[in-house]
Amino acid sequence: MIFRPILFSLFAVVLVGQAIAQIPAEQAVKAPDGKIVPYSKRQIPEENAVKGVASVPHNLHTKTYISAPDGTIVAYNKRQIPAEQAVKAPDGKIVPYSKRQIPAEQAVKAPDGKIVPYSKRQIPAEQAVKAPDGKIVPYSKRQIPAEEAVKAPDGKIVPYSKRQIPAEQAVKAPDGKIVPYSKRQIPAEQAVKAPDGKIVPYSKRQIPAEQAVKAPDGRIVPYN
């Protein structure tokens, strides 16, 4: 009775060894004309070390905008690239909107899978929720937790104790390396402008006062 399990174990080991012996080794192949052919042992080329060119060659193409109205891909010239256009497809056919038809984003609900717009009085405020077991459940008003400061030095998120929470630290990175400022080095925030995309500091007499604005129809207009 004792030898029977030993015999079965030996038999299983033999079968596994035969199966492993049948697994083919990875084989080097070539396909110069689209047909995969194994290399003979003497034909296998050595791996060739390569280097990346530091400068971009002139013949490398940059991103190109293309069109294919008749199925043939054609590159746009610089003046032909179209702006993104708002479209609608109520019956499955894509039709551009006219300038006056573009609708504003609309709040919707879909409790049963059918999208229905909210009436103006129905739009709910954003609600705090939790999902510990994967099911989204709203918090009651007294349950909403405050945001908690955490740290993760070794990849594991651990809450800070109240006395451990570090203050935000001012840093600089002139050469790409982040270095904390000493207390005397921290620069004051500086008012800047960038009308042409280039950030330029304001002189002390140029700094404009903050201006209240409104946008009832989507266009930003200063309050009088």
Oligomeric state as shown: single chain
Helical region count?
1
* Outline: extended
The rounded distance between the terminal residues' Cα atoms is 101 Å
Determine the mean pLDDT. Answer: 70
**Poorly predicted spans:** none
Major sheet description = 2 strands, antiparallel
Secondary-structure-based class equals mainly beta
Keywords: Signal
Signal peptide: 1-21
Question: Mind explaining what this structure looks like?
Answer:
- With 224 residues, the protein is mainly β.
- The protein is 9% helix and 16% strand.
- It has one helix spanning 3-22; strands at residues 29-30, 37-38, 66-67, 74-75, 87-88, 95-96, 108-109, 116-117, 129-130, 137-138, 150-151, 158-159, 171-172, 179-180, 192-193, 200-201, 213-214, 221-222.
- Strands 1-2 form a two-stranded antiparallel sheet.
- The model has no long low-confidence stretch (mean pLDDT 70).
- Residues 1-21 form the signal peptide.
- Keywords: Signal.
